Amino acid sequence: MAFVKVMSQTFFIAEISSNHNCDLKRCYKLIDEAKKAGFDAVKFQLFKINELFTEKVLKKKNFLNKRKKWELPIKYIPKIKEHCLKRDIDFACTPFYLHAVDELKEYVNFFKIASYELLWDDLFDKCISTNKKIIFSTGMASQKEISSRLDFLKKKKFYNFDILHCVSSYPAKIKDLNLKTIPFIRSLLKKYKIGKNIRVGWSDHSVNEAAIYKSIFEYNSEVIEMHIDLEGKGNEFHFNHCWLPRNAQILIRNVRDFQNSKESFEKKITLEEKLERKWRRDPRDGLRPFLSSRNKV
Fold first, then answer.
1. How does DSSP assign the chain, residue by residue?
2. Which of 90, 166, 235, 259 would you call most buried, defined as having the most Cβ atoms within 10 angstroms of its Cβ?
């Protein structure tokens, strides 16, 4: 009986978001821990509060103004890229204003477009112009809105993208995850006849191992995005949607072990089991080990 691999490798993205706390050394440490945990890429966010919210909202919601301290300094970008190269891990970033694409394109392996920007044609156009891969999330999006985005990309003849199912709650409740959306998105890609090399996956806000495992082993998520922090002191950790590196490492290792395993459609006795067989209960006298093995014990 021929052996077959269980499935292809899942691409894991460590979403650092604003847990860098505007500290370059902390950025480096987050990258190091992400690599150690088994992630394939780290992702930061490049935003300016004054270009993210309207002036009226900023006047009414003072807590948003305080998030200026969460902004990633542009001067960090080349240094983060250099550190990622040293650690052999991909560097990605979410641009939250149009010029951010120009500031990032020289350094990133791919762009990630957040769910909140899904309807922003100009941002997609700007990212497409770089010819870099785009990964975008679909939190809050209706079926019609996802279909509209696929129609947009098809008209642009741009197919270098991946799509992530997402629930825009922090944290997301298990009852709301509806992971079956993952194969549904694949069905939309098939409908648009553009799904051949496009990966579909899950952007997690649940911090639940079962959700990750189910998304991969039941619905074949090819890309997984997980928010991470170092030790619970990151700017966004209190929202309860971030993984700690050790927990992420255990999960990713388990996924890799299964994905690297080989299985066959038959019942086989393992090497370890062969050693244990002599300790089976002998049906002739009802005692362990087997009669033929007793003198060898």
1. ---EES-PPPEEEEEEETTTTT-HHHHHHHHHHHHHHT-SEEEEEE--HHHHS-HHHHHH-HHHHGGGGGPPPTTHHHHHHHHHHHHT-EEEEEE-SHHHHHHHTTT-SEEEE-GGGTT-HHHHHHHHTTT-EEEEE-TT--HHHHHHHHHHHHHTT---EEEEEE---SSPPGGG--TTHHHHHHHHHHHTT--SS--EEEEE-S--HHHHHHHHHTT--SEEEEEB-SSS-STTGGGS--B-HHHHHHHHHHHHHHHH-EE-SS----HHHHHHGGGSPBTTTTBSS-GGGGGG-
2. 166
